[in-house]
């Protein structure tokens, strides 16, 4: 009846304002975008990034450990949406593959092959190999970024610069999180690589300069496709691997 419709309307309005739905806590409207799908979500401003990942899991079936969630960079799990200044209408980008997708790509046999390669690489430190020595013997670049030993930091908002590539030329790394791309820039050109196309990332401390690493991005099916970068500050190594591979990678 018309009267019944009127009686139902006030609670409906209060839900949209967050009055009933979350114990009076303030809600924010988000647009969650994953795999070309868009989801309109109302979520509590005082919930954490980890709780938002659980919500995304319920929407997409994508486990939290396999999500890269981005809002002005990687979303910190421990902070609330209010703390990172999420506002109404904010776009939340989600990158990641479901368990089935990952298993289809990474068979146990391939994972075992990666383990064998890792063991082989341990036999001789990479920085003693001839191909790497010719770059490392040049010494630190003049504009090398400062390192902080024993600390893990999130990626800076500026490109990582002051590094060499295998030909001894200057190289910088720019992490375009919203586009899920890694830009490798030299004086001559900039390669724009989808992070999903990078098969693996390896790194090793530089002997005598353990606060810096040499690092390689595997761009093709074999080790011949490794793109080497030298003098990466140690505090960013884990963040680079997590950003490029996702924390769910198991090799």
Q: What is the total number of structural domains?
A: 2
CATH-derived topology of the largest domain: PH-domain like
Structural class assignment:
alpha+beta
**Strand content of the residues, in percent?**
25-35%
Averaged pLDDT, please? 81
Straight-line distance between termini = 62 Å
Quick one: overall form? elongated
Parts with pLDDT < 50 across at least 5 consecutive residues = 1-22
Strand order of the largest sheet: 8-7-6-5-11-10-9
Helix content: 25-40%
Sheet having the most strands: 7 strands, antiparallel
- Tally the beta strands: 11
Give the C-alpha Rg. Answer: 23 Å
- Count up the helices: 6
CATH class of the largest domain: Mainly Beta
Order of helices and strands: HEEHEEHHHEEEEEEEH
- By CATH, the architecture of the largest domain is named Roll
Q: Provide the CATH superfamily of the largest domain.
A: Pleckstrin-homology domain (PH domain)/Phosphotyrosine-binding domain (PTB)
Region (Disordered): 1-23
GO molecular function: cadherin binding; RNA binding
Organism: Nesospiza acunhae
Domain Ubiquitin-like: 28-95
